[in-house]
Design brief:
The chain has five helices and 14 strands. By secondary structure, the protein is an alpha+beta fold. Helix 2 (127-141) packs antiparallel against helix 4 (166-179) and helix 3 packs across helix 4. It is globular.
Length: 258
């Protein structure tokens, strides 16, 4: 699938500011960036590698009290939708060092609190079938309610309240999968299937020795997602982290089949 991404952002700060961005589509297997452009005005940019070597993050030194950003990209998504039901969990002693950190609890994903629930509810199922059952359980039992959570909402609150947005669905998916002894990480993506259009949060699970995309909201499939960044939870994949208070003036995310 070929997709086009069009992003525009305008934020105001009380003083000149240094901002951390994660918003460009990553260059990696399964997605080819055909063309892209990023305009941050007069800001001085410093690029660093993203977590686990996925994509790049940008330090932007904004000399004024306002930043205007535009990003456009054309991509070919070439990855197939994984057949999770046929895939196996990797034994713990064979999980590589770069993957092992995604077994542990994190700031928003207190996976250690779900071990008993996961054992009782999903313990009878093998690897990929277990992951699919967790995904189906989340989609069935949670209600997608815009505005029902904020940046401080953790997975325990989501589990109790049974509602949230994509960020909360992905946190719960990561937590349940980690509680089963399977590595899982948060992934920020673009997809034309997301309604309303926005940055979208999904999960990657480690099965058969590779990362596989799973969207607990049911909106998007792996063959329509453009990966931006990965991390332990939303703290690691936020599209913007500002050193100063940031006032949103305008933001638009548009992703369409090209």
């Amino acid at each position: 699938m070929r997709i086009m991404i069009e992003l525009a952002m305008n934020y105001r700060f009380p003083r000149p500011n240094t901002v951390f961005f994660a918003l460009e589509a990553a260059k990696l297997e399964g997605q080819e960036v055909l063309q892209e452009s990023l305009d941050l005005g007069t800001a001085a940019l410093t690029r660093i590698a993203g977590d686990s070597g996925v994509g790049e993050r940008i330090w932007a030194q904004v000399p004024d009290c306002e930043v205007n950003l535009t990003y456009r990209a054309w991509l070919d998504i070439t990855r197939a939708v994984p057949r999770l039901e046929t895939m196996d969990a990797v034994p713990l002693h064979l999980i590589p060092g770069e993957v092992a950190p995604y077994l542990r609890p994190s700031r928003y994903c207190q996976s250690d609190k779900f071990v008993t629930f996961v054992q009782r509810r999903f313990g009878h199922l093998p690897g990929g079938q277990k992951v699919l059952a967790m995904r189906d359980w989340i989609e069935t039992n949670l209600t997608y309610v815009p505005g029902s959570s904020d940046v401080d909402t953790n997975v325990l609150e989501t589990f109790a309240g049974r509602q949230g947005v994509c960020r909360d669905y992905a946190h719960l998916m990561c937590s349940l999968v980690r509680a089963a002894g399977i590595p899982a990480r948060m992934v920020a993506v673009y997809s034309p299937d997301v309604v309303p259009p926005d940055f979208h949060a999904v999960t990657e699970v480690w099965l058969d020795g590779r990362w596989c995309l799973v969207d607990a909201t049911g909106m998007a499939q792996a063959d329509s997602m453009a990966i931006i960044a990965v991390g332990r939870d939303a703290y690691d994949v936020a599209f913007m982290d500002s050193q100063e208070p940031a006032e949103l003036l305008f933001q638009s995310v548009l992703v369409t089949p090209a």
